[in-house]
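User: I'll paste a sequence; please echo it back and then give the predicted structure.

Assistant: Echoing your sequence first, then the prediction.
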Amino acid sequence: MTTHVHSPASDAVSAEPLWRLGTAYFSRKTILTAAELGVFTSLSAAPGTAAELGERLGLHPRGTADFLDALVALGMLEREGDAYRNTPIAEHYLNADRPSYVGAFLSKADARWDRLVDALRTGDPQNRWGSGPEMFTEQYRTTAAWRNFTAGMDYLNGMIGPALAEAFDWSTVDSVVDIGGARGNLAAAILRRHPHLRVGVQDLPGVEPVFHEHMTQLQLTGKVTFHPGNFFEDPMPSAQALVMSHVLHDWGVDERRLLVGAAHRALPPGGVLLICDPMIDDDRRGPAGALLTSLNMLMVTPHGSEYTVGECRSWLTEAEFTDIGSSSIGAHNTLVVARRPR
């Protein structure tokens, strides 16, 4: 018979780390609920007290003050006296009247994670939109749908673009194309820091209208070239540097090999390929961010996942790239740079 020995209470393992993880959900849900209710959009039009916002949005007074003050504590609202207003980050990303709004993008991700059990049991994505480029074209058939999706991509690559503009010696090249570059937010960050470059973006034809909208908003009309195309079917544009940021993790290993090989063919001798993703550490022990992102890819793609730097190096070596190096970029991403031999 097995005897279970219970530790005295004084030796019990602290629940504090688990409590912090559990209540992180409360924070996310509070912010997404505020976006869904239109709190940030309403406050963009005019500041308001708890009573005024409750009246505008149809909220019961019992929870309104705690709800709004929680948003203050989370850095999404400011309060002066009894009047609330948006912080800069909430105004930029959570005001539905702005083109940079990501509330819908984040809410879709939140809903997907409610189906993590299904994804783990079946191995199937939880959006069920095909297995190739059609997983994008079927979901985002309209300009409005592309606008919401690419705003979400801007939210992600907005943390990468400025860092990428500093992480590589761009004086060594005269041209760069961002492959799968959405509406050009990352390309714009590189161009602003290095105006000598000829800059382009390749993405699906449906993205082109929102690309031109975004370039107008950034006052870069005519300065970044859009190359419509399906990178599995159409050649990649020729440039001295190609960027694949948050692209390879959308696809399975065979597709990654195809894309790396296509990049090698498109680059001139001496050209460089820059790959950026939340890569997993080689011993797969953390930080947790890349592994959690990999679970997200399980739920949104048929074969996608994050991968290790070692795996990335193997695909590049197989495609006959050389001078392969890697470095951290920002808080959550890894940059791998490789060169086509001269």
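The chain has a mean pLDDT of 89. The radius of gyration is 23 Å.
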